[in-house]
Amino acid sequence: MSNSTEPQYPASPQYSQNPWASPMPTSGASPSADPWQGAATHSAPTSGGVPPTYPLAPTAGPFGMPEPSRARTTTATKQRRVWPAVITASLASAALATGGTFAVLNTQGTGVDTSSGGAAGATTVSQLVSTDLESVVNEVADTVVAIDVVSQQGESLGSGVIIDSAGYILTNNHVVSGARQISVTLTDGRIFTAQVVGVDASTDLAVIQLQNAPSDLAVAEIGDSSTVKVGQEVVAVGNPLGLSSTVTTGIVSALDRPVTTTDTTGGDRVVTNAIQVDAAINPGNSGGPLFNADGQVIGVTSSIASMTQSSGSIGLGFAIPSNLASRVANEIIETGSATHAFLGVSMGDTSVQVDGVTRAGAVIGEVVAGSGAADAGLRANDVIVSIDGKTVIGAESLTGYVRQYTPGSQVVLGVVRDGTLTEVTATLGTSD
After folding, report:
1. Which domain range does residue 361 map to?
2. Sign of dihedral through CA atoms 14, 304, 315, 94?
């Protein structure tokens, strides 16, 4: 989007994160928040050239705690990029791993798994499993690959899933970003070189393709992530710490969890309304598939919450929903890039009174002339509290939802204006 400046709204608590591969420490500091609705460049027009500021939320972390400190570590001699890990404000601040990305977890989401993991009398995942997971794993194992990337920063490891018999593989952008050489290992041990077909930094997704792909590739079936339910069983398969074809199981802990990641180079912020799972996800799982009990891919594992750099999985993993991943991958294969829906507002986090109840939402700062928001009659200070019936808890929540749509889609927004809740239909445009 052209002729625009960046909006600013209150910084969310920052959390340390490490992008998936073999962990090696580095130094870095969490970038500032950059929440701009629906635009890959995260920019919004302002009047007078001054970005709007919305002091709508406290700068301290949840529960009255101060914002966690941004830890630093030294850089190792041989750098290995690792994967995005998220840490909630109620946990200790974690160290930043080499080549990692920062993440923010919006703790206002619903559907949190509040079980006291490991507590006496707690129900374990193994007690909940009723599906024949052995059959599921046998069915899908050959569709998962281990990815080894050599870049200027060093060597990194990740995972991917075969989505086409021509050798197309879906993975994370941060796995292959800056790759000079990519090697892909199949489950039977065969190794192929691969090239990047295209990447989409805004969603942290990428497609690579095997060179001289064999004719006997197993191709994964992509499922419908809109049908995923909290509590259903899931299987993650990947290459954690270089241990290829590692299988972990669990359940879906929450849906539409707003998670924000930014790489240490200050690149694009990735805002995802993710699928949260308790299956063990560790460095190297990044870009790997999350399967349902029918052996369908319902997500791409991309980040975790962690108490410290070395703590690894604590049962809080996040996956990019398959509907978004599939759309982006198909566009990359067809055109080399992906499009993104655009509402056309700058916004911040707030709460608003409506019908005697206080609700969280995304407050509009400015509306872009000629955008879908402008055509729908949205105004500054309107508060968006829902989109197509799904609860919006803030600016990043709305951004994550909008990015799941294709440009040209119509959405119904729940908008509070002057204390009254109304529904507004808007047509999403395309971000530049």
Report:
1. 341-430
2. negative
The total of structural domains in the chain comes to 1
Residue 370 domain flag: yes
CB 225 within 8 A of CB 298: yes
Q: How far apart are CA 315 and CA 296, in angstroms?
A: 22
pTM of the model: 0.72
Quick: pLDDT tens for 91-110: 322 222 223 333 445 444 33
Of the residues 34, 148, 200, 204, which is catalytic? 204
- What is the Cα–Cα distance from 374 to 377, expressed in whole angstroms? 5
pLDDT value for 428: 96
Alpha-helix residue ranges (DSSP H) falling in 152-225: 173-176
Tokens of 178: 């800056």
Secondary structure (DSSP) of 29-75 = -PPPP--BTT-TT--B--STT---B---S-SS-GGGPPPPP----PP
Burial class (CB in 10 A: 0-12, 13-18, 19+), 107: middle
In the residue annotation, 286 being an active-site residue is answered as yes
Domain annotation covers residue 407: yes
Note the pLDDT of residue 40: 32
Type of residue found at 277: V
Rounded-to-integer distance, Cα 146 and Cα 156, Å: 11
244: in domain: no
**Active-site position among 286, 313, 322, 346:** 286
pLDDT of residue 131: 61
**pLDDT confidence bin for 113, thresholds 50/70/90:** very low
For residues 310 and 79, give the distance between their C-alpha atoms in angstroms, rounded to a whole number.
16
Is residue 409 flagged as an active site residue? Answer: no
| Residue 200 belongs to some domain of the structure | no
Q: What is d(CA 104, CA 84) in angstroms, rounded to the nearest whole number?
A: 10
Among 22, 30, 159, 174, the active-site one is 174
Instruction: Give the pLDDT score at 32.
Output: 34
Active site residue 268: no
Kindly report the CATH number assigned to the domain that includes residue 369: 2.30.42.10
